[in-house]
Specification:
The chain is 48% helix and 12% strand. It is an alpha/beta fold and 440 residues long. It folds into two domains: 112 residues, no CATH class; 314 residues, 3-Layer(aba) Sandwich (Rossmann fold). The strands form two sheets. It has a seven-stranded parallel beta sheet with strand order 3-2-1-7-8-9-10, sandwiched between helices. Helix 10 packs across helix 11 and helix 12 packs parallel to helix 14. The two termini are 48 Å apart.
């Protein structure tokens, strides 16, 4: 049913006070507009007074001006009528002008004021740097983007499997897979972009298995002349909330020393994708070359962060490849941010079989040193059916005795082996505000 003009008028009138909410950045400009209009009105008033005084012979004009200025009413009533009408016209005009200007940028069903309020709230959010890779990092970003717009993802570039590995080998480009996932997670139109970026070609020998997102980033790298510029331009094209940065721009390989089953011998496994496939237990991992410098913007973001979150994700193939970049690790250690490690919910076959939370932390600190993290965040909900190849990562007595440990229900009920993005983000923000206070 179509609304009447009066109904639309009344809805607009009721919506005007919402524009005066604190923090929107509207009242200061509205005040300036009103001052300008007041000065303009004073100028017109001076002209009218001059006409009254100098053009007394033109009775028709004076009669018209007398009625138009409501001189037959008391002066205060006239001031109230003209002032109220002027303020309403200014507010109404600003609202309609903003709706017209912002209409191309608003999602269907969204409201201008609510969109602006949400933007200002996220703009004032804490500076969060998330370090990791794989689906765990994407899940974290998907939850955090609704709380803050000051969000940076630092992504591993040690991936050498699948589409990323083929592009890396054939074109010499850094692997774009994890970066693609993070860009999709941070996008304003995630549903459509996730489908588009994760779409994999089939039927053609040359394109078989490649994702559109990987080819998109690769093409931009060729157009812009550098991988880092390609990532920046991809973020602009996709209108992401935050930024995605590679941990290093050097071509590094992940190498593992693995203990074979029923043997004391260790073997050297080269390649991130080959480590989980190798039967045995990971003893140690490192990068080759081991002196690759961190991407400078990453260091800047880490040193200015309020919160640094490491994980969730594959311990040896997603998290450690970032922390093994020496400059990056030194920046985390030097940062005054609250440093949080998010432990996985379920074990990963080939990497962390039968690991508890304590085992994760022990393996991590065995590579990067102790006391790097201020908080260890573990899941305490073990309800749901896991994949047969994995088991729950329990918060055991050893980790619970660590005063840094926080536990919470972090499980995605639809996929119990994964973190719930909303629960995880809220837990991290609760820890931050508990430490600093909501007004920081």
């Amino acid at each position: 049913m179509q609304k009447s003009p009066f109904s639309r008028f009344w809805q607009t009138l009721k919506g005007i006070p919402r524009w005066l909410r604190p923090g929107l950045g509207i009242k200061r400009w509205l005040t300036m507009i009103l001052i300008g209009i007041t000065l303009l009105g004073l100028g017109v008033a001076v002209i009218l007074i001059d006409i009254y005084r100098t053009d007394s012979t033109n009775s028709t004009l004076l009669t018209f001006l007398s009625y138009a200025s409501l001189r037959f009413l008391p002066r205060m009533l006239r001031a109230f009528i003209f002032g109220g009408l002027g303020i309403w016209l200014v507010l109404f005009g600003i609202v309609q002008l903003n709706r017209s200007l912002l209409r191309p940028f608003l999602r269907p069903g969204s409201d201008v004021v609510d969109t602006l309020t949400d933007f200002q709230r996220r703009k004032r959010g804490p500076r969060v740097v998330a370090v990791g890779g794989g689906h765990g990092l994407s899940t974290l970003l998907r939850g955090l983007k609704s709380h803050t717009g000051n969000l940076t993802a630092v992504v591993t570039v040690a991936d050498d499997g699948g589409s990323s590995g083929r592009l890396r080998e054939s074109l010499g480009i850094l692997p774009p897979g994890d970066i693609r996932n993070c860009l999709a997670a941070l996008s304003n139109d995630e549903d459509m972009l996730t489908q588009l970026f994760q779409y994999r070609f089939s039927g053609s020998p040359d394109l078989e298995g490649h994702s559109f997102g990987n080819l998109f980033i690769t093409a931009l790298a060729d157009i812009t002349g550098s991988f880092e510029d390609a990532v920046v331009e991809s973020g602009r094209v996709l209108s992401v909330n935050g930024q995605v940065l590679p941990s290093t721009l050097h071509d590094v390989k992940l190498v593992a020393s693995m203990e074979l089953p029923h043997s004391l011998n260790e073997v050297r496994v080269v390649g991130e994708s080959k480590i989980p496939e190798m039967a045995g237990r990971v003893r140690r991992v490192w990068l080759e070359p081991d002196n690759a410098p961190a991407f400078p913007p990453v260091i800047k973001e880490l040193l200015s962060a309020d919160v640094i979150v490491v994980g969730p994700g594959s311990l040896y193939t997603s998290i450690l490849p970032n922390l093994l970049v020496r400059d990056l690790l030194a920046s985390i250690d030097a940062s005054r941010a609250i440093k949080i490690y998010v432990c996985n919910i379920a074990t990963q076959s080939g990497e962390t079989d039968a690991f508890t939370c304590y085992d994760h932390v022990r393996a991590l600190e065995g590579h990067v040193g102790e006391n790097l993290f201020d908080i260890i965040l573990c899941n305490d909900n073990y309800e749901g059916q896991l994949d047969p190849s994995s088991v729950w990562v329990h918060a055991d007595d050893k980790i619970l005795s660590d005063e840094r440990t926080h536990t919470a229900d972090l499980v995605d009920e639809a996929h119990p082996w994964r973190h719930d993005s909303v629960k995880l983000a809220q837990s991290i923000l609760d820890i931050y505000y508990e430490r600093t206070g909501p007004l920081n």
